[in-house]
Amino acid sequence: MTRFDLIVIGSGPSGRRAAVQAAKLGKTVLVVEKRERVGGVSVHTGTIPSKSLRETVLNLTGWRERGFYGSAYRVKKDISAADLRVRGSKILEHEVDVLDHQFARNRVATLTGEARFLDPNHIVVTRGGGAEPEHFEADRFVIACGTRPHRPANIPFDGRTVIDSDEILKLETLPRSMTVVGAGVIGVEYATIFSALEIAVTLVEPRATFLDFIDREMIEEFVHELRDRNVSLRLGAEVTAVEFDHAGRPVCRIASGRDVTSDVLLYAAGRMGSTDGLDLDKAGLETDNRGRLTVDPKTLQTAVPHIYAAGDVIGFPSLASTSMEQGRFAACHAFGLEPTPLPDHFPYGIYAVPEMSTVGMSEEDVKKRQIPYECGIARFRETSRGHIMGLQTGMMKMIFSKKTRRVLGVHIIGEGATELIHIGQAVMALKGTIDYFMESTFNYPTLAEAYKIAALDAWNRAFAPSVAAPETPGMQEAAE
User: Fold this and answer.
1) Residue 312 is labelled as binding a ligand
2) Where are the beta strands (DSSP E) in 339-383?
3) What CATH number matches the domain at 162-269, 3.10.20.90, 3.30.420.40, 3.50.50.60, 3.30.70.3270?
4) Would the pLDDT of 473 be above 60?
5) pLDDT of the residue at 465
């Protein structure tokens, strides 16, 4: 039996960060990954593939240039499923190579196989190809096994016409129509990506609202853009069954009686923790009904103190970015190093078309806390950069405290939202106020100018004295 200071189960964002952090502390580390190659869901079926698909679609369709050249503009006239996979396969190879090198240079041992606990300090790893199971012992563990798509027994998945979010990347041909069940982050992203290919998409969600953690005004803007390009939204539509018509096409039965028929049905309603094969009961652990582990949010320890969990397997926010920090945090805490606390405010990015990103409180949050506030709005079309890019849509919303003038939240929808959000994140982290945006100089022309436009808008509404604020070049519309 081989002994390690730390064994990490899973090599996704949280697993690899935990392993590397522990190795940098001089600890012996083993990473067990059940896939043939490292990277976890993030690299193989989740974050990287879906964002690569999105970028490919936007490039091949000429989506970003249609503001100038019209809706009929195309970079490639006939786009096939094979075209969509080319970029993804190249990026996958690069990502795996980077991770292999990272583990090698930090002397992190890796092993392909399925791990399961024998007791709180021992695991056995079963490998393919007839290899003998291997036993390992460790003082500490990090469970970072991630999640997989939820596949209810009453949904007739066949891998071709009724698929989950892992299988959608393997489509052999592009359909003419698609139904997406589940308006969570994954469902919304894929629905809008395939809509950009001019595939008729219907998005079905049993709740009356969706993406409830996003500011409602941004969702209203998002819904308007989707309807403007004929994405059909069926909110409050409970799916009772999925059947097939005489042509073999999936029919989504809705409780209201308004069924949806399409060439392909993507079921994206939730995910499950990939914990069922770990024999967690032998380690003294239990999961919830979705296979997720509960941890102490201050330490990321499970009910068994020397076993930590991080990443999607512990639930919200289930972001690659936050998972990485959770992995680092868990490894530091496990070996007695006082880790930097996880941030109060982190950016949330949704890579839909258009993309959305948010940090801090929404307007609904501010109202609940009864904080006197004011909002500032900037439209990307108000910026010179927006004109140059041909943008007709896109907006930024900033929320300020009327008492302290501090930034309470930033919400962006449109081109570059997930990049632009970090300016607002930095100012919030440094307890900045509206004055920063009023007094700072931004590159011109840029979309980042929207920060000053939004700040001027809020200033004019709530903070301006009787004499108007000095006019800033390029900001005349906002100052009026």
Assistant:
1) yes
2) 348-350, 356-360, 373-379
3) 3.50.50.60
4) no
5) 74
2-149+272-334 is classed in which CATH architecture? Answer: 3-Layer(bba) Sandwich (3.50)
Q: Consult the annotation and say whether 188 binds a ligand.
A: yes
Rounded Cα–Cα distance for residues 54 and 47 (Å): 11
Strands (E), 133-176: 134-143, 147-149, 162-163
Contact indicator for 231, 194 with CB cutoff of 8 Å: no
**Which of these, 236, 431, 448, 211, lies nearest to 316 by C-alpha position?**
211
3-state secondary structure of 166: coil
Cis ω on the peptide bond leading into residue 49 (within 30° of 0)?
Answer: no
Instruction: Give the helix, strand, coil percentages of the chain, each rounded to 5.
Output: 35, 25, 40
403 known member of a binding site: no
Between helix 417-429 and helix 450-458 the angle, nearest 10°, is: 50
Pairing verdict, β 147-149 and 162-163:
unpaired
Residue 284, marked binder? no
Q: Which residue blocks in 170-287 are alpha helix, DSSP H?
A: 185-196, 216-228
Residues 6+ apart with CB under 8 A from 108: 19, 20, 23, 29, 30, 31, 102
Q: pTM for the whole thing?
A: 0.92
**Residue 189 in marked binding region:** yes
Q: Is 185 flagged in the annotation as binding?
A: yes
Measured CA to CA, the distance from residue 192 to residue 240 in angstroms comes to 24
CA dist 234 → 188, 207, 221, 355 (Å): 12, 9, 17, 21
- Tokens representing residue 384 in the block: 């010179």
Start and end residues for every CATH 3.50.50.60 domain found in the chain: 2-149+272-334, 162-269
**pLDDT the model gives residue 477:** 44
HSE-CB of 33 using CA atoms within 13 angstroms: 26
pLDDT of residue 371: 97
Q: Tell me which fold the domain 354-479 belongs to.
A: Enolase-like; domain 1 (3.30.390)
Task: Return all residues near 253 (Cβ < 8 A) that are at least 6 apart.
Answer: 239, 240, 241, 242, 243, 259
For 247, counting Cβ atoms within 10 Å of its Cβ (0-12 exposed, 13-18 middle, 19+ buried), the class is exposed
164 is in an annotated binding site: no
Structure tokens at 25: 């502390």
For residue 90, with 0-12 CB atoms within 10 Å meaning exposed, 13-18 middle and 19 or more buried, which class applies?
A: exposed
**Rg (alpha carbons) of the chain, rounded to whole number:** 24
Q: Alpha-carbon distance 432 to 408, whole Å?
A: 10
Q: What angle do CA 185, 189, 193 make, to 5 degrees?
A: 175
**Strand partners of residue 181:** 204, 267
Q: Does 205 belong to an annotated binding site?
A: yes
pLDDT tens for residues 125-173? Answer: 998 777 889 999 999 999 999 999 999 999 999 999 999 999 999 999 9
